[in-house]
Amino acid sequence: MPLTSSVPGEVPAVSDETFAREVLQSDTPVLVDFWAEWCPHCRMVGQVVAEIAEERAGSLTVRSFNADENPTTMLTYRVMALPTLLLFRDGQPVLSIVGARSKARILSDLDAALAD
């Protein structure tokens, strides 16, 4: 199944069905952007995440995840607010960022989590 983007210019999307393969089994760390159409802050964070995906291509995989269309993964990882960014490394969540943040703050948090 090919990856699809939720909105032009955004990163490839994953779903409940593709999450394990695309995120948990990835050889590189994966940043997942949990979002919804009705969430205005999600659009702002989505733009930043798309920039990070482009800048970190090769060392970080970035995926978007439509929360409204994929309830199983939302429950599994207890995502209760949007936007939420989860960083996975070796199939495990290692960082959670809830709410809108600046690009500099997101990058700082990512770098700190990946340095461990």
TrEMBL record:
<feature type="active site" description="Nucleophile">
    <location>
        <position position="42"/>
    </location>
</feature>
<protein>
    <recommendedName>
        <fullName>Thioredoxin</fullName>
    </recommendedName>
</protein>
<feature type="site" description="Deprotonates C-terminal active site Cys">
    <location>
        <position position="33"/>
    </location>
</feature>
<dbReference type="InterPro" id="IPR017937">
    <property type="entry name" value="Thioredoxin_CS"/>
</dbReference>
<dbReference type="InterPro" id="IPR005746">
    <property type="entry name" value="Thioredoxin"/>
</dbReference>
<keyword id="KW-0676">Redox-active center</keyword>
<keyword id="KW-0249">Electron transport</keyword>
<dbReference type="GO" id="GO:0045454">
    <property type="term" value="P:cell redox homeostasis"/>
</dbReference>
<dbReference type="InterPro" id="IPR036249">
    <property type="entry name" value="Thioredoxin-like_sf"/>
</dbReference>
<feature type="disulfide bond" description="Redox-active">
    <location>
        <begin position="39"/>
        <end position="42"/>
    </location>
</feature>
<dbReference type="InterPro" id="IPR013766">
    <property type="entry name" value="Thioredoxin_domain"/>
</dbReference>
<feature type="domain" description="Thioredoxin">
    <location>
        <begin position="1"/>
        <end position="115"/>
    </location>
</feature>
<dbReference type="GO" id="GO:0015035">
    <property type="term" value="F:protein-disulfide reductase activity"/>
</dbReference>
<comment type="similarity">
    <text>Belongs to the thioredoxin family.</text>
</comment>
<keyword id="KW-1015">Disulfide bond</keyword>
<keyword id="KW-0813">Transport</keyword>
<dbReference type="GO" id="GO:0005829">
    <property type="term" value="C:cytosol"/>
</dbReference>
<feature type="active site" description="Nucleophile">
    <location>
        <position position="39"/>
    </location>
</feature>
<dbReference type="Pfam" id="PF00085">
    <property type="entry name" value="Thioredoxin"/>
</dbReference>
<feature type="site" description="Contributes to redox potential value">
    <location>
        <position position="40"/>
    </location>
</feature>
<feature type="site" description="Contributes to redox potential value">
    <location>
        <position position="41"/>
    </location>
</feature>
